[in-house]
Write a structure and sequence with these properties.
Elements lengths: L4 E3 L4 H7 L7 E4 L5 H6 L7 E4 L10 E4 L2 E5 L4 H6 L1 H6 L1 H7 L5 H6 L2 H6 L7 H7 L3 E6 L2 E6 L4 E3 L2 E2 L6 E8 L5 E7 L10 E10 L2 E10 L6 E2 L1 H7 L2 E2 L2 H14 L10 H20 L5
Parallel strand pairs: 1-3, 2-3
Antiparallel strand pairs: 4-5, 5-10, 6-7, 6-10, 8-9, 11-12, 12-13, 13-14, 13-15
Helix pairs in contact: 9-10, 10-11
């Protein structure tokens, strides 16, 4: 790695001021699980890194707030996994964390980093998107709120400006809604997925009142497939309905081919796993 300057602000507002929107070699660093790999591989050579580890502790905490959860961007994935508030208010997140990367990564990787990186293979974005999460983003001009479903714009791309940082995530309580997240991987359970599907249902038995369905990994970005949601809403689940929802999702999603599979392969995966994820959600999300 080439030498670089390291700034260590103690306030998030000061960290934002250190960002230079005109200099791509100036970057914030949180857990560093992705950025350090990029630096070691020579893909990114920073002139300055702005460490976020010393900012206010409120940005590393989890709290029940307004009937949901407030999660600071510097909260580690391990803390998210072990939080009693998360388990109570959004058990889908707790279940997902068990197969999200490995323990060493979860100990240092942060919620904000997992979102800001924009990697479509991440497990957390589709889960939070299906739950209806919103982000508080801070810049020198103040704060703004962004719905997570509007946050990702493309492959490793987000709406974040060069001088903006994620401050917090706000996640509505899951309540009585049934939910599931399923990932397809040819490796271990915590490996990068070829497909991720998150489903959150407001239902009465097999009768679905409304649905949120999010697809990731097989696609250019974590994507809410509203056409599949429309197929499911107001209907009673059977094999025919689930097949229609799968077909609708496949038509809407923008697929990518990579080392984990071709586009035709991923299209068929999605057809199958839309069905499985909906049924798993209706069964209480048990894996």
């Amino acid at each position: 790695m080439t030498p670089f300057e390291l700034a260590e602000p103690t306030k998030l507002a000061d960290a934002v001021k250190l960002l230079d929107p005109d200099d791509p070699t100036v970057r914030p660093i949180a857990g560093g699980t992705a950025l350090m790999l990029m630096m070691k591989a020579g893909v990114f050579r920073p002139a300055k890194l702005i460490s976020l580890r010393g900012i206010e502790s409120k940005y590393s905490g989890i709290a029940a707030s307004g009937g949901g959860l407030r999660v600071g961007a510097m909260t580690t994935l391990n803390a998210l996994e072990r939080s009693a508030d998360v388990k109570k208010l959004a058990p889908l997140i707790t279940r997902t964390m068990l197969t999200l990367s490995n323990v060493r990564v979860r100990n240092v990787a942060t919620v904000g980093g997992a979102l800001a990186h924009g990697d479509p293979h991440m497990d957390l974005p589709p889960v939070l998107m299906a739950l209806g999460a919103k982000l508080t983003v801070i810049s020198p001009n103040g704060e703004r709120s962004v719905a997570l479903e509007d946050f990702f714009t493309g492959y490793y791309e987000t709406v974040l400006e060069k001088n903006e940082l994620i401050a917090e995530a706000h996640i509505p309580a899951q309540g009585a809604k049934r939910a599931a997240y399923m990932k397809v991987t040819t490796g271990s359970a915590d490996d990068w997925p070829a497909l991720g599907v998150a489903v959150v249902l407001d239902s009465d038995g097999k009768a679905i009142k409304s649905a949120r369905v999010v697809v990731s990994a097989a696609t250019t970005k974590a994507t809410r497939v509203k056409s599949a949601e429309a197929v499911l809403a107001g209907k009673t689940v059977d094999d025919k309905l689930l097949a229609q929802a799968g077909d609708a999702a496949v038509e809407e999603a923008e697929f990518i081919a990579d080392v984990r599979g071709s586009v035709p392969y991923k299209r068929e995966l999605l057809r199958v796993y839309i069905k499985r994820a909906v049924r798993q959600a209706l069964d209480g999300g048990a894996q």
